[in-house]
Amino acid sequence: MDGVPTLAALRELGPLHQPVYEDSVLLERVIEQLRTLPPLVFAGECDALKAKIADAAEGRAFVLQGGDCAETFAALTAGSIRGRLRVLLSMAVVLTYAAEVPVVKIGRMAGQFAKPRSSSIETRDGVILPAYQGDAINGFDFDAQSRRPDPARMLQVYHASAATLNLVRAFAKGGFADLRTIHSWNADFVRQAGVSTRYEQLTAEINRALAFMIACGVDDQSFRTVDVFASHEALIIDYEHALTRIDSRTLRPYNVGGHLLWIGDRTRQRDGAHVELLASLRNPLGLKVGPSASPREVVELVERIDPDGEPGRLTVISRMGRSRIRELLPPIVEAVEATGRKVCWVCDPMHGNTFATTNGFKTRSFADVVDEVNGFFDVHAKLGTWPGGIHIELTGDDVTECVGGVGELSELDLTSRYETLCDPRLNRAQSIELAFMVADRLSAMERKTTSEYVGLDF
Ligand code: PEP
Ligand code: CO
């Protein structure tokens, strides 16, 4: 394939965090089968997303990227998918209406099944087994058979992603996302002082505004449907390479397993396989940068991944932690801006703020998440650059995985509904509360007037 490194060449580079399969014959069979399967997304859709991200990079839109840390095959149900989409759309409504900024909606969905882990093994009661690496690779149950990496799981990932995306598209275009039904999206919302009251006021206002516009004869398609894009971390080189195709219209290579793919903080080596493969594709890309990334390193990666400075091509997702963002992000933003390149700056306030509770849960505090987002806005306000978006781990269910927020979840509350197999996620109330907080910061920004924005794009 033109310009795309071969799988053999990528394997030669010794990519990090790859599954080690025992059955190499089965592995090759799976890869061949994946290569024959139809695309999950189209090149034209990836380009449309790129154009929207370009707007966010220029200060004319805001990116909302969110979903599970790790999707699971068990959560491949209509209820779970609808719940995740609903919270994403609710947050987007809050941001669009309260901050008057068009929101680019990207799910960490329909492909987010593989995880890099800090340790490749897990020990329980003296028994050592491979760590759980996501449903794409092995099972969560702690026994030798379940933890053995199985290449056939990649086929399951493809089909689970197809089913998820199919339902997301149906919800997005088939009436569920109709703004006129907004009050019903969270009708079952547990009454929690603060968020639900503010949310209800906002939906009532939107309904009145819509009724007014419709009475005036404005009945735009954008009230009824939304664009929701799919994204995941490109981790398993075999899988991502197998889903790379040449677009028949432009003859250029795209990964057709998701609209946007990102490179994780642990696999962003400049000459590594992940950067090599993704740099050869035409999809919009994300690059995660944590506290170990130097400004020079980030500039080199930006130049490597986006040599032509293509608008919307690259989103840099920082995840510094609440205590370090104000110190570490400015030199990175300054160094990249000094090259004259425009990337979209997105804040992941989740991955730098994880800690273990005394009762053994991996959690995050809502206050820390808010603090990092505030730090992100402070940095951009000071530098005169645009805070382009947020990247959140969330779920539509009323789980108890992150402490704090309107419900004031305590460490003890974590025992009641802690369901994630990987990182703790914001629940629905916490997600919507965060959206209001972000909307408040956005409305306070000096920015373009609404008329300068590119269409309403709810
Ligand atoms: C993630 O997004 O789930 C993740 C592993 O992030 P990072 O690469 O930033 O650690
Ligand atoms: Co995570």
Strand and helix map with partners:
Layout (H helix, E strand, L loop, with lengths): L6 H6 L11 H13 L6 H15 L4 E6 L10 H22 L3 E6 L12 E4 L2 E4 L13 H4 L5 H21 L8 H4 L9 H21 L12 E6 L3 H6 L1 E3 L6 E3 L4 E4 L9 H7 L5 E5 L5 H11 L8 E5 L6 H14 L5 E4 L6 E3 L5 E3 L1 H18 L5 E5 L34 H17 L14
Parallel strand pairs: 1-2, 1-14, 2-5, 5-8, 8-9, 9-10, 10-11, 11-14
Antiparallel strand pairs: 3-4, 6-7, 12-13
Helix pairs in contact: 4-6, 4-14, 11-12, 12-13, 13-14
Cobalt (II) ion binds next to loops.
Structure, described:
This protein is of the alpha/beta class and 458 residues long. It has one domain (7-177, 225-443): Aldolase class I (TIM Barrel, Alpha-Beta Barrel), CATH 3.20.20. It has helices spanning 7-12, 24-36, 43-57, 78-99, 144-147, 153-173, 182-185, 195-215, 237-242, 273-279, 295-305, 325-338, 366-383, 428-444; strands at 62-67, 103-108, 121-124, 127-130, 228-233, 244-246, 253-255, 260-263, 285-289, 314-318, 344-347, 354-356, 362-364, 389-393. α4 links the parallel β1 and β2. Cobalt (II) ion binds next to loops.
Question: So, CATH architecture?
Answer: Alpha-Beta Barrel
What fraction of residues sit in β-strands?
A: 5-15%
Secondary-structure-derived class: alpha/beta
Distance between the termini: 37 Å
Q: Give the mean pLDDT.
A: 94
Looking at CATH, the homologous superfamily is Aldolase class I
Brief write-up:
The chain has 458 residues and is an alpha/beta fold. It is built from 14 helices and 14 strands.
List the main descriptive attributes of the protein structure presented here:
single chain; 458 residues; alpha/beta; TIM Barrel; eight-stranded parallel β-barrel; two-stranded antiparallel ribbon; globular; binds phosphoenolpyruvate; binds cobalt (II) ion
